[in-house]
Amino acid sequence: MEFEAINNFWTLINGKVDSWLETGIKILPNIVVALVVVLAFAIFARLTSRIVSKILHGAFESRQIADLLSAMSKVIVFVAGVFIALEFLGLTGTVTSLLAGAGILGLAIGFAFQDMTENLIAGIAMGIRKPFQIGDVLEAEGVFGTVKSINLRNTVVETFFGQLEIIPNKILFRNIVTNYTTTGERRIEIPVGISYADDVMHAAEVIKSALSEQKFVTKKDDLDVFAEGFGDSSVNLVVWFWIKYPGHTGFMKARHEAVHLIHQTLMENDILIPFPIRTLDFGAKGGEKLNTMLSQKDDSSQGST
Q1: Whole-angstrom Cα distance, residue 240 to residue 259?
Q2: Which of 179, 198, 216 delimits the end of a domain?
């Protein structure tokens, strides 16, 4: 009985091996064709990637986007070749399972790395739209400085305090970004107060005349001074002028020189910049003035003596 069982076992094994060999010999041409297809698509994918890379580098200024898209094209072509090779081997079910698995895996990765994916998509979108470039001065979400580098995930900004701020691209894509370099000019506003005894129009004219002679002031026709309102001790004015930005004279230096010039000009024209003063006056609308009340009090005290 034992020898018979062993014989049956070896007979089953030999049958299976013969069946596998027969099947292998039958599909051997398909295997060769499948390998040739994979090799051909691998070469074609590399050539496609080079061609796409050259085209995209000419179309996009962002090298990262061009490299990403060319790499994606290479992967897509190669994967298509693998699926075609599997079809030659008669593994249609395997191809369907792989596609379904790839879809599920991609969905899982998308949920797991949602922030990274969002930053990547935002980086690609900004690379196409180009709202700013390296070297631009921008302000966004409390960060104000010069753009140092841009990649697909984040943007590095050097603030005017010398710190490097790494901003995720999705924040720049979602929120308001002020680019001070786009127009090449920037307006400076300087508030100044003059006393109620001085002429507003005269003060505005002398300030405009002094600022218009400065080299750092551009758009001379748009230089202006406006009366903004009435303060506790002064008539409040606001001075508007434009500078080239970024330029030889920076924002802080231009504002410093303008404040100094306005101060000197008002002093030379005997126009007072008052400090806070509080006056008690009881003479408004029929009342008595404070000095009159005090003199009457002194008179009454002397008469009683």
Answers
A1: 12
A2: 179
Residue 87 domain-assigned (yes or no) = yes
Helices 2-59 and 63-88: angle between axes, nearest 10 degrees: 150
Report the share of the chain in percent with pLDDT over 70: 69
Please tell me which of 111-115, 157-161, 248-252 the model is most confident about, judged by mean pLDDT: 157-161
Query: Mean pLDDT of all residues in the chain?
Result: 78
| Beta strand residue intervals within the chain, DSSP E | 137-140, 143-150, 154-159, 164-168, 178-179, 185-194, 217-218, 224-230, 235-244
User: What is the total count of domains within the chain?
Assistant: 3
Residue 209 lies in a domain: yes
**Cα–Cα distance, 262 to 203 (Å, whole number):** 10
131 closest CA partner among 159, 173, 164: 173
- pLDDT tens per residue across span 122-148: 777 777 778 888 888 888 888 888 899
- Predicted local distance difference test score (pLDDT) of residue 122: 79
Q: What is the pLDDT of residue 191?
A: 94
Full residue range of the structural domain in which residue 195 is found: 185-268
Q: What is the CATH number of the domain that holds 45?
A: 1.10.287.1260
Report whether pLDDT(246) > 80. Answer: no
Closest to 16 in 3D by CA, of 5, 24, 6, 26 = 24
Alpha-carbon dihedral sign for residues 244, 249, 250, 254:
negative
